[in-house]
Amino acid sequence: MISSLIKFGLNDVLEKVKKEINKLDDPIKKIEQIITVQLNFYKNHGEFHKFLTREVWGHKLKFKDEIKEIMDKYTEIIEDIIIEGIEQKKLKEMNPLNVTISLFGMIYITSAHRIMFGKDFSADEVEEIKDDIMEIYFNGIIKE
């Protein structure tokens, strides 16, 4: 039951990301859309985020394989976009996996902070958080 819940939730965000980025060509716009989709997912599914956080960071990772399988698919999508951006000379030459994990971590931890400490966030705040993450993230990796 719990395993199915984890798979359902993670697959839901994965499918939403795929749907949105397939409409786009620019890797920067794809990353922006990933941030928006992931933030909105966490905003709308705060209890799932809390549950997943307990599973991921808990000392008894019972569902490690299920989480890893889906997260590998998700990080592969982001990593491919990072590689695309590097090849198009829109992003600096950096280790794509490190850049991918950094983006995921920024979104996840920013959401976790809000959700864990009882502050829900509105649609306007999602946009503000997205803009801040974009500014922080791209200030160091966009090629001028």
Question: In brief, what are we looking at here?
Answer:
Residues 10-122 form the Transcription regulator YsiA C-terminal domain. The chain has 144 residues and is mainly alpha-helical.
Summarize the helices and strands and which ones pair or pack.
Blueprint: H1 2-21, H2 27-44, H3 46-57, H4 64-87, H5 96-116, H6 123-141
Helix pairs in contact: 1-2, 1-4, 2-4, 2-5, 2-6, 3-5, 4-5, 5-6
Pfam families: TetR_C_4 (PF08359)
Protein name: YsiA-like protein, C-terminal region
InterPro entries: Tet_transcr_reg_TetR-rel_C_sf (IPR036271), Tscrpt_reg_YsiA_C (IPR013570)
Quick tags:
YsiA-like protein, C-terminal region, Tscrpt_reg_YsiA_C, 144 residues, Tet_transcr_reg_TetR-rel_C_sf, mainly alpha
